[in-house]
Amino acid sequence: MRQSFAKTRRDEQLVIKEVIHAMQNFVSEDEGVSIIVFKPTSDKFGKRVDFQKVLEADLENAGFDLSKTIPVSINGKVVQKPKICVTTWGEHTATNDWSYCTTQFQIGILHRDTLDLMGNAAGQLGNLNIELSHKLLLDIQLSEVAHCSYQALNRINCRHVENGQAKPATIWLFHDSDNFQKKLETVLEGAQWLGWRKHNKHPEKKLRTYSAPTTKATVETIHKRVCRKGRIECHSRR
């Protein structure tokens, strides 16, 4: 993810190109969009990448007006809300500010360090000599990632329930685990997963084939789409 955002040429920023293509082709003019990216980071050489700044610049270059508002009905009153809300991870819990948005892009998801998880497990079990396999730690880490994603997607329209069903929402996310879907399925009851190839193909990558409704992702090829009652969608890319 960092590598893609760090590219200086826009035509090489494949992740952002995917987001832009999705917004141009699958998001209507009157839909609110929530976008979550990582906070700024620096590599070991001190090269800094400001994910939000890069994304916003590319969106504007593609013709999106980040100051645009849309009419939203709240408690019977129509108010103007931002059409596109770009924020960073860490602000994905305990807020209703994006509840009118029907689409969300999770561009990368927070991962807790396995050493941190080991320490947390030792503290909870009261055993500083605990030994956990690397495989188990990775599974715990993935569960934490799924929880993070679930918290974020519940900030938008699907947090509202009508007649026992979550309201329509679309979630696009980028993740690299084949088992991520399984983790989310436990809290997305009734979800149907569909998939298709990514829009922007790297010319140096050998692509593998994929056909729905198979859910196993392949490297650099797939978006996954999950719909609950035909309308909640999650798109995941490796």
Describe this structure in words.
With about 240 residues, the protein is an alpha/beta fold. The protein has a single domain (about 1-235), classed as Rossmann fold. Helices cover about 30% and strands about 25% of the residues. It has helices at about 1-5, 15-25, 50-60, 115-125, 135-155, 180-185, and strands at about 35, 40, 50, 70-75, 75-80, 85-90, 105, 160, 165, 170-175, 190-195, 220-230, 230-235. The strands form five sheets. It has a five-stranded parallel sheet with strand order 6-1-7-10-13, sandwiched between helices. A two-stranded antiparallel ribbon has the order 2-3. A two-stranded antiparallel sheet has the order 4-5. The model is unreliable at about 200-230 (pLDDT under 50).
What's the number of extended β-strand segments?
13
Count up the domains: 1
CATH structural class: Alpha Beta
Instruction: List the uncertain runs.
Output: 202-231
Instruction: Give the helix proportion (percent range).
Output: 25-40%
Number of helices: 6
> What is the string of SSEs from the N terminus onward?
HHEEEHEEEEHHEEEHEEE
